[in-house]
Amino acid sequence: DAKTTQPTSMDCAEGRAANLPCNHSTISGNEYVYWYRQIHSQGPQYIIHGLKNNETNEMASLIITEDRKSSTLILPHATLRDTAVYYCIVRVTGTYKYIFGTGTRLKVLA
Amino acid sequence: GAGVSQTPSNKVTEKGKYVELRCDPISGHTALYWYRQSLGQGPEFLIYFQGTGAADDSGLPNDRFFAVRPEGSVSTLKIQRTERGDSAVYLCASSPTEGGRGTDTQYFGPGTRLTVL
Fold it and tell me: B105 and A49: CB-CB below 8 Å?
């Protein structure tokens, strides 16, 4: 079944790059990897998604390994406002069920 | 424009009571999802609507949970005979595209915190 594994927590110094890994070894060939983040007491917020190629937008970059079994979300210059729980998400093939997992709690330190 | 809204923001009820949670999606969004989030956990999928129909209700935990979207916009999640284990934040998300495709970005509401005493 679809599943993602992420470290429970990470710290990052303000202004430095935050690299958040995710393992999704059971992902099937045509499923995307999505990243969302959730700031305390708010609903999750979309960050980025990708299939095979690396992706970049105004918020972050996404690096997906060639075998698609893992990916890394990169926040190039972390700010205090990036402190949140970051979720790597995959869909169960053939359904509309998205699996969030427990996420990584990122704390950006001043 | 206006985002996804959910009402009430907080709901406290007693065990055994019936509750309704409302979701107003972004105007024009055809796809709508409900999730449940327990403390310290990620959101857990409950149900997906494409238009008026529930295309996937595989996440509903049991038959006490039901959701409707009669006109393809507002959705209501209904919980009968509430139990203490139903206490959680219930999140709604909408998307402008049909679910299951690579571009179906979900826009989440702030959630309804349900507490069953």
Answer: yes
A95: nearest CB among B4, B56, B102: B56
Contact B75, B49 (CB under 8 A): yes
* Chains A, B: CB pairs < 8 Å: 55
Q: What is the pLDDT of residues B14-72, one digit of tens each?
A: 999 999 999 999 999 999 999 999 998 999 999 999 999 999 999 999 999 999 999 99
Find the angle CA(B89)-CA(B106)-CA(B58) to the nearest 5 degrees. 65
Phi-psi region of B72 (alpha: psi -120 to 50; beta: other; left: phi over 0): left
For range A62-73, the mean pLDDT: 95
Closest CA to A24 of A59, A60, A67: A67
Which tens digits make up the pLDDT trace of A15-66? 999 999 999 988 887 889 999 999 988 999 999 999 998 999 999 999 999 9
Question: Which two tokens mark A14?
Answer: 């303000």
Does residue B1 surpass a pLDDT of 70? no
CA A105/CA B60 separation, integer angstroms: 27
Beta partners for residue A63, in sequence order: A72
Number of neighbouring beta carbons within 10 Å of residue B83: 12
Taking residue B55's Cβ as centre, other Cβ atoms within 10 Å add up to 15
Contact A38, A103 (CB under 8 A): yes
CA-based nearest residue to B77, from B92, B56, B87: B92
Query: How many CB atoms sit inside 10 A of residue A35's CB?
Result: 24
